[in-house]
Amino acid sequence: MMFSECSDNTYGSNCYNPCTCVKEHTHSHNQSCDIINGACMCTGNWTGKTCDLSEQITLDIDD
Questions:
Q1: Can you give the residue ranges of the Laminin EGF-like domain (predicted)?
Q2: Is residue 60 part of a domain?
Q3: For residue 48, with 0-12 CB atoms within 10 Å meaning exposed, 13-18 middle and 19 or more buried, which class applies?
């Protein structure tokens, strides 16, 4: 199976599959997922299958 350079947020053979990532939370808004398996490439404090979960730590401060 041949894989070409996909763009426009697609992946897989012939780039027919759309990426399901939250583009704003990925390294590239033009290609938010891996071109072979569609895995999202999350940035910063974002995680999850589609980069939709925040890893931001919240602190409870008692007065």
A1: 19-52
A2: no
A3: middle
With respect to residue 16, please indicate whether it lies within any of the assigned structural domains.
yes
Asked if the structure places residue 53 within a domain, the reply is: no
Residue 3 tokens read as 């894989």
For residue 33, being part of any structural domain is answered with: yes
Domain that includes residue 28, residue range: 1-43
- pTM comes to 0.75
Residue whose tokens read 């999850």? 48
d(CA 49, CA 60): 28
Task: Give the pLDDT score at 29.
Answer: 85
Encode pLDDT of 2-49 as tens digits.
556 888 899 998 899 999 999 999 999 899 999 999 999 999 899 999
